[in-house]
Design a protein that fits this description.
The chain is α+β, with helices and mostly antiparallel strands. The chain contains 15 helices and 15 strands. A hairpin with a 4-residue loop joins strand 11 and strand 12. Helix 7 crosses helix 10. The longest helix is centred in the first third of the chain and has 29 residues.
Length: 563
């Protein structure tokens, strides 16, 4: 075809296209429904003379710009073109001459979506009523088609393209950033080394609630560690330089003698209920007055386990009766900070928001160091950490060391000395002696505390905090006569609690300050000998794991060494 012929063809083609547009307009007028769009053949970018292949039949249906389409019903043409007679073609009838009667008779009517597996669409593409099969009741779904011994396989010709796990191996090769410290580092350096003091600070610090307490009363991972490093940072035997916490929380003189107290007393409560209390019963009466005055909603104390005699457990006392029932000292740890989950005690607490609750906690100096460090930081407390924020009063018990329950009660007393835990009515450590009494008050053991050294927690040897420098109030027996407690008031909060309690106390100036200072000095000397790191109250509060590992010889990146 020459240039002129091609121009004529384009002109004729333009006329046909314009006429098709006119027919579409008239078709809408005939239908009377401007909104309805009927199924139609899609626009094509192919040449005019090319045919369209229908995948359902594998054949070619002739199509012109005039709009003849045998897959569409009611295609009316009025433009005088190829279908100028106005014939109507449908899947069942054809008057345009392009289909024979035998073709029409043999062809099965198809819906607009034939081949797509949709059974509720009619030939016009309209969605019909949906029908659902009612599920069977009280029977299991039959999925084996009568052949339960035949395993269903992948249909023929289906490729699932299952991805390989090469990405997993590549991830294993990625080095851990230096600033990340995982629970396994804490496990390697503190727990597995026998240096854990069972304070529970790591449990309280974990924002993902990934750390729990195992059957051996030691912290353990209960779900995936996120590597946030907080368990390491706040552990008093790991990343927390506890002597720096004294300087931050207490007075400037906290590295010498008995610290920097506001005032000191020897005191006792002269009431009948003190019979089972430790020494003068001061801790119990201070907490009772705080409850009575509405200063606190509860106090976390230690109680004796119902299952094992003389095994300590945490207990939230919310009444004077609760406190009296649980008076006295039990010489093993409760992981107190790990039991500050308010949801656990919700049934005992008043009906008010957790952030409005106020608690007191009684613990060893290391536990008070841990909670003070946690409270010093303004971080996003998770729900399980709201108990930390609720603690408004802290009472530390004077402590040279604590004991592993199974070693003390099982090995030392029962196995070596023939004394069952059920026989014991009271225990005390006083003047360097371990004293054990039966239920009638008769002393059945009085030995040098050094004889029980193997039952003590190894990590206690590294502690230089005999008197609880970080607490509001310190209470113990050293420095006072029998039946009196030594009381050291360290903060304004502690002074407030003392003033509420003072009217019910028999008290006077601390009887022997030198005794407290002497034992504090002995405790510090022991710690200096046991610590593998420098003791420095002016150094940064946190110790990097790599620095700790250099001092203690523990493994760097223990997860790479099969920990």
């Amino acid at each position: 075809m020459g240039i002129d012929g091609e121009a004529d063809r384009r002109e004729a083609s333009g006329r046909v296209s314009g006429e098709a547009a006119n027919r579409e307009t008239e078709r809408s007028e005939v239908s009377g429904d401007d909104e309805r769009t009927l199924p139609s053949v899609p626009e094509s970018s192919t040449d005019d003379d090319e045919t369209v292949i229908f995948p359902e039949t594998g054949g070619a249906a002739p199509r012109s710009r005039a709009g003849t389409d045998h897959a569409r019903e009611g295609a009316i043409t009025t433009d005088g073109g190829d279908d100028a007679s106005g014939e109507s073609c449908s899947p069942n009838t054809c008057t345009c001459g392009e289909k024979t009667a035998s073709d029409a008779a043999s062809e099965t009517p198809r819906v607009a979506t034939d081949g797509a597996g949709v059974a509720n669409v009619d030939e016009m593409g309209e969605l019909g009523d949906l029908e659902f099969t009612e599920p069977a009741e009280n029977v299991s779904q039959d999925v084996d088609n009568g052949a339960p011994d035949v395993r269903v396989g992948i249909p023929d010709g289906v490729d699932l393209d299952t991805p390989e796990y090469s990405i997993r191996s590549r991830m294993n090769d990625i080095e851990t950033p230096d600033e990340k410290t995982w629970f396994m580092e804490l496990d390697e350096a503190v727990i597995d080394e026998g240096r854990c003091i069972q304070c529970g600070t790591c449990v309280a610090a974990c924002p993902s609630d990934s750390i729990g307490v195992g059957d051996d009363d030691l912290p353990e991972l209960v779900k995936m560690c996120t590597g946030c490093s907080l368990c390491w940072d706040f552990c008093p035997r790991g990343g927390l330089r506890y002597e720096r916490q004294w300087k931050i929380t207490g007075g400037d003189d906290n590295v010498k003698g008995a610290g920097d107290p506001i005032t000191e007393f020897s005191a006792r409560v002269d009431e009948d209920w003190t019979e089972n209390a430790q020494d003068g019963g001061v801790v119990t009466t201070v907490l009772s007055h705080l409850l009575e005055e509405g200063e606190i909603d509860g106090a976390l104390v230690a109680t004796e386990s119902d299952e094992e005699a003389w095994k300590a457990e945490s207990y939230l006392a919310t009444s004077h009766e609760d406190l009296i029932e649980n008076a006295g000292t039990i010489y093993n740890q409760t992981l107190a900070l790990g039991n500050l989950d308010l949801e656990r005690w919700e049934h005992k607490l008043p009906d008010k928001p957790f952030d409005e609750l106020s608690l007191a906690i009684v613990g060893t100096p290391c536990e008070i160091e841990g909670i003070r460090a946690l409270q010093d930081f303004d971080w996003d407390y998770q729900q399980q950490n709201e108990g930390i924020r609720a603690v408004d009063y802290t009472i530390a018990l004077m402590c040279t060391k604590n004991f592993n329950y199974h070693s003390l009660m099982g090995e030392q007393l029962e196995e070596q000395r023939g004394i069952s835990p059920d026989e014991i009515g009271k225990m005390d450590v006083l003047n360097g002696k371990m004293m054990v009494y039966d239920h009638d008050g008769e002393m059945i053991v009085e030995e040098d505390i050094g004889n029980f050294h193997d039952a003590a927690l190894k990590g206690c040897d590294e502690c230089a905090d005999f008197t609880g420098f970080c607490s509001d109030i310190t209470v113990g027996s050293v420095g006072s006569s029998d039946e009196y407690s030594s009381v050291i008031i360290r903060t304004e909060q502690g002074m407030k609690a003392w003033e509420l309690t003072e009217p019910d106390l028999d008290y006077h100036d601390l009887e022997d300050k030198s005794a407290v200072g002497k034992l504090q000095g002995w405790d510090k000397k022991k710690a200096f000998e046991s610590l593998e790191r420098p003791f420095d109250p002016d150094a940064p509060r946190f110790i990097d794991y790599k620095d700790h590992a250099e001092n203690y010889g523990t493994a760097l990146n223990p997860h790479d060494q099969g920990h």
